[in-house]
Design goal:
Distance between the termini: 40 Å
Shape: elongated
Largest sheet: none
Strand content: under 5%
Structural class: mainly alpha
Order of helices and strands: HHH
């Protein structure tokens, strides 16, 4: 598990708690901040999931990963030459 995944889950939990406290107190600003933290946590977790998937792919298929990286480098160099 990547650190981004752990951070994302933690941020989602904090956001959920903050939203619940905001609802309990009737503070719509606090509730909205909680919803924002939940969304931010989800994005961070998704980023961590993507990193984990790429790492697993590179470990399982290093030749294919190298080939994909080489093709991406060639395409990027051609785009930047223009």
């Amino acid at each position: 598990m990547k650190s981004e995944q752990v951070e994302g889950v933690a941020e989602k939990l904090v956001g959920k708690a903050q939203g619940a406290v905001g609802r309990f107190l009737g503070d719509s600003k606090l509730e909205a901040e909680g919803a924002g933290r939940q969304a931010s946590g989800q994005l961070t977790k998704t980023y961590g999931d993507a990193l984990d998937n790429v790492s697993a792919f590179v470990r399982e298929k290093p030749v294919a990963a190298f080939a994909i990286g080489a093709v991406a480098a060639v395409l990027l160099s051609r785009i930047l030459r223009r």
